[in-house]
Design brief:
The protein is an alpha+beta fold. Helix content is 34%, strand content 38%. The protein contains five helices and seven strands, in the order αβααβββαβαββ. Strand 6 and strand 7 (148-158) form a beta hairpin. The longest helix is centred in the middle third of the chain and has 15 residues, at 93-107. The protein is globular and about 40 Å long.
């Protein structure tokens, strides 16, 4: 293989980020429905796009492998959704997408990022803690669940 082909293959393995559009919603919904028992609706994503939230797509070799939604206002950011396709576990893509979204929050002058995560989502909590988020509160009965409602753990990251 030539050096040029090798470089091209390496570039295909690097995540690329772009703004989400309405045309992405079929891909987004496929991933959302695959990874969550109580997924966001298409309307939730559409409303986020219409509200001007920072909705980003992560691609590898032209394939949508993840996405995230971030709202920023009053010097604070709220990470509303961060998801990676189920066929890409343990590749570090969640960490990379989170790092990208933290950078985006900084770019828009946020000094803190907040998020909610299910207490049962141990992988998500570990991901966020590994990025420096700390648990600061609990929201009672925040999430719908199969046997009723589930609390949310509120996490915060102070940006410097």
């Amino acid at each position: 293989m030539s050096d040029e082909g090798s470089v091209s293959a390496q570039l295909d393995n690097l995540p690329r980020y772009r703004s989400m559009t309405a045309e992405d919603l079929d891909h987004v919904m496929a991933i959302e429905n695959e990874v969550y028992a109580q997924p966001w609706t298409r309307g939730n994503f559409h409303d986020s796009l219409m509200a001007g939230y920072h909705c980003r797509i992560m691609e590898l070799a032209g394939e949508v492998v993840g996405y995230s939604v971030l709202s920023v206002g009053a010097d604070e950011a709220h990470l509303l959704n961060l998801s990676i396709a189920a066929q890409w576990p343990r590749h570090g893509l969640g960490r990379e997408l989170l790092k990208f979204m933290i950078g985006l929050a900084r770019e828009f002058m946020a000094y803190k990022i907040y998020l909610e995560v299910r207490p049962s989502n141990l992988a998500g909590r570990a991901l966020y803690a590994g990025a420096g988020f700390r648990e600061i509160a609990t929201r009672r009965d925040y999430y719908p669940g199969p046997g009723g409602r589930e609390d949310a753990v509120v996490m915060e990251l102070v940006l410097e």
